[in-house]
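quick one: protoporphyrin IX containing FE bound model?
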Amino acid sequence: MPTDIPEPQAVCDSISRSAIFMVATLKAGPESASTVRALCADVAGLVRAVGTRAPPANLSCVCGFSSDGWDTLFGAPRPANLHAFREFGEGGRRAIGTPGDLLLHIRADHMDLCFELAALLMERMGDAVSVVDEVHGFRYFDLRDMVGFVDGTENPRGREAVEFALISDQDPAFAGGSYVMVQKYLHDMAGWDALPVEAQERIIGRKKLSDVELADGVKPSSSHSSLTTIEKDGQEVKILRHNMAFGRPGAGEFGTYFIGYASSPEPIEQMLENMFVGRPPGNYDRLLDYSRAVTGGLFFVPSASLLEDLADRDPQASANESASAG
Ligand code: HEM
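yep, here:
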């Protein structure tokens, strides 16, 4: 990791077997905002308190804030590329934006640690927030997702993960931070399972059992892996994904929670456009014939050191400061 960027949150930590994703909205009023701000300084200590009791389980928690959430909680200065979730597609194939000021991405190899930390964080926030979505995710055998394919193979690793997921000189005041997009997908499993495995492989762009990428000439340009492979100025641009399966078989619910980190929202938005609208338009991702996005949010993840400092931020004072500077 470059030594000149502040310590990041656990964005680049390796794959875990369990996760809890919580999206919450802030209740109105200054007390709610100050309760959540105060928690910013305590998250790291709570992760240590729970995680140290089971060291091999790699407990971590990443906190992110939406554009509106940031303005209410912290005011100016704000991250350069933070904006509301941009929607793509139309009709039944649509990436929708849904409410949420705060995202908690809690990960560990054992669900009991995730659960304990989520409970402690919720106890601290109390009535200051309303949780609008909570998903308990797991990895199927061989780190597979709900549609039965290994998920995360082409993730950048090591230095590459840091380079693609974390901000450095693009926005120096927010270096060590990241942008994260989440979407909760529900699958038509009966429809998906009725497809021959070869048809599923052409949709994903990889072999189902071996996880080997389909050869050029065999892999369709509409495959998920083709449409999410993008370039800028002739160079491939990657994002860092930590997707999880979730569901309630008794309720007929089978899903994939998509979560992607990047140093700017732009590549993730480009991938979404390719999937939902198509590249070229109409050549869309057939995975979407069997998957529906029911939530969508974009959040900024401050570096660990900035997160701690944000506890002391007074949004009113910073508004007055920028008014007098202007
Ligand atoms: C229904 C939801 C989704 C499922 C089940 C899914 C599943 C998969 C699978 C199985 C792979 C191949 C293995 C791998 O490299 O990880 C993959 C690759 C990938 N996915 Fe998704 N994905 C979903 C949504 C998304 C979304 C919304 C994005 C971006 C906006 C995305 C971006 C990517 C990228 C960048 C790759 C790697 C492509 C490559 O370099 O070959 N995925 N996904």
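The radius of gyration is 20 Å.
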